[in-house]
Amino acid sequence: IWVFGYGSLIHTPNFQYDKHVIGCIKGYRRVFWQGSTDHRGTPERPGRTVTLTADNEATAATWGIAFQLAGTAEEQAAALSYLEWREKEYDVRKLVDVYGKDGEVLVRGALVYIASPNNRNYLGPADPRVIAAQIATSHGPSGPNCDYLYKLADALRVMGVPDLDLFMLEKLVREELSQQEE
């Protein structure tokens, strides 16, 4: 069983895995459209975390890490149970192929969790500056929302894969926080 992570699963999977590969899924774009009311925000002041949105551009791809679950069938079932709890606000499950930098298929049928407009915490698109301001000012039980963004951006840099929208949002959040300090 393979699971594809494109957000916090990249840097903090919190489950046992035998193998992992850096790769991308095609036809999707990573976006900060999912509200977080239990980790990076509160019900009164939701944070924003990533989800995927379909993108028909020929070059549309989202980079992340595919993890092959470790252990016996029971241990893998326990890992999936943990993921179901962790990703409880992500209401769509899809099986996707994961591709390498040369376009070769690395993994067929990896499970990915997606938050759709049908879930209760879906916030949807907004102006990048509005999203940046929300991320800069949101804080939940797992810490500041900006830490979520920074860890993801740093992980992608370490992986050597670009996400220009993510890096631009990171810049906007840093600017927002700098203005708040003045």
TrEMBL record:
Positions of transmembrane segments: none
GO biological process: glutathione catabolic process
UniProt superkingdom: Eukaryota
GO cellular component: cytoplasm
Keywords, sorted A to Z: Lyase
A Pfam family annotated for this UniProt entry: ChaC
Any one GO molecular-function label of the UniProt entry: glutathione specific gamma-glutamylcyclotransferase activity
EC number, UniProt record: 4.3.2.7
Signal sequence bounds: none
Protein name as it appears in the record: glutathione-specific gamma-glutamylcyclotransferase
